[in-house]
Amino acid sequence: MKAHIFIIITLFLSGCASWPDEGQGGWAEKYQNYPLDDEQKDLNYTQPEEVVRSEFEHLVLKLELLKSQDIKACMPAQLLKAQIYENRIRRLIAAQMWEDAEHDLLIHYHGLNQLTQHFDTVQQLTQCAVVKEDKPALFSVKKQITDLLNSDNQFAFKAFEITPKYAVRLAQAADLVKELESISILLVGHTDSMGEMASNYELALKRAETVKHWLVVYGVPVQSITTLTQGSLKPYSDEPQTDSVRHSDRRVEAIVLDANTNNLQDNKAKSLVNWTKIIKSKQE
C-alpha cells in the first residue's frame, strides 16, 4: 500500500515539475513577447525625455505668466531663485541628465506653486504689483492651453476614457487655466467614421463630458466649461481613412474663449451650440 502511494506521489510531483517543450508553453509563452500596435504604444509616454521636456515647457510658461503679473515688484528674490532653478534644469536637459532633471522638476513644480500662492497673498495685502496687461504673455499662455487640450492620442477605439498621456496634458492645461481670469472653454466631442451616427453622437458627448470631468477635478471651475458634440460628422482631416487618421478623429476639440467678448471664436461657439441643438432635436 505504501509503495503504491509513493509511486502516485512521485508521478504527481514529476508531472507538476516538468517543463513543456518549446511551443507548448500555453498563454505564458504566447504573450512573453507580445507585440504592441501603434495605438497601444501611444497610450503612454515611451521616452522619459519627452515627459521631462513637456513638463519643463509647462513650468517655463507658468513662470513667464508670473513675471507678466509683475511678481518682480513684490518678490524679486524669490523670482530670482526660481529663474536660477529653471536655468539649472535647462542645463540638465541639455546634458541629457534625465533623472536629475526629473528630480529637480518635481522640486521646481512645488516651488512655483508655493510662489504663486505667496504672490497672491502679498498682492492682496500690499497691492505691490502694477496691474498691466501683457498681451504677448497672455496670448502665449492661451495658445499653450489650446495646444495641450487639443493634443493627439486622446481616446482609444470606442472608448470615452482618456488615455494616460492625455491626462497629463489636461493636468498641465488646468494648471494654466487656474492662473487666468475670465476665460471659458468649449469642448466639442468627435468620433471616427465607424459605427452608427446615433451611437457616435452619444459617444462624442461622453468624451467631451469626460474631459470636462477631469478639468474640474484638476481645479477648473465647472461653470466655465461647456460641452457639445458633433459625432462623426466632422473628421479631423480630409485624408483617406486609415487607422492613424481614425485615431486622430477620436478627439475632443477645445476652444478657449475670452469671457464677455465677442470675437470670431465666440461666434463659432454660438453656431456650434445652435447646430448641436438642431442635431439633438432630430435625434429626439
The helicity comes to: 55-70%
Return Rg in Å.
26 Å
Q: Give the SSE string.
A: HHHHHHHHHEHEHEH
CATH homolog superfamily of the largest domain: OmpA-like domain
Mean pLDDT: 75
Here the CATH topology of the largest domain equals: 60s Ribosomal Protein L30, Chain: A
First and last CA, distance: 78 Å
Q: Domains counted in the coordinates: how many? A: 2
Report on this structure.
α4 runs parallel beside α7, α4 runs antiparallel to α8 and α9 packs across α10. A 3-stranded mixed beta sheet has the order 2-1-3. Helix content is 62%, strand content 7%. The protein has 12 helices and 3 strands; from the N terminus they run αααααααααβαβαβα. The protein has 2 domains: 84 residues, no CATH class; 152 residues, OmpA-like domain (60s Ribosomal Protein L30, Chain: A, 2-Layer Sandwich). By secondary structure, it is mostly helical. β1, α10 and β2 form a beta-alpha-beta unit.
Short key terms for the protein model shown above:
about 280 residues, 60s Ribosomal Protein L30, Chain: A, three-stranded mixed beta sheet, 12 helices
Summarize the structure.
With 284 residues, the protein is mostly helical. 62% of the residues lie in helices and 7% in strands.
Furnish the topology, listing elements before pairings.
Layout: H1 2-17, H2 26-30, H3 38-42, H4 48-68, H5 71-74, H6 76-94, H7 98-126, H8 135-149, H9 164-177, E1 183-189, H10 197-217, E2 225-229, H11 243-249, E3 252-258, H12 264-283
Parallel strand pairs: 1-2
Antiparallel strand pairs: 1-3
Helix pairs in contact: 4-6, 4-7, 4-8, 6-7, 8-9, 9-10
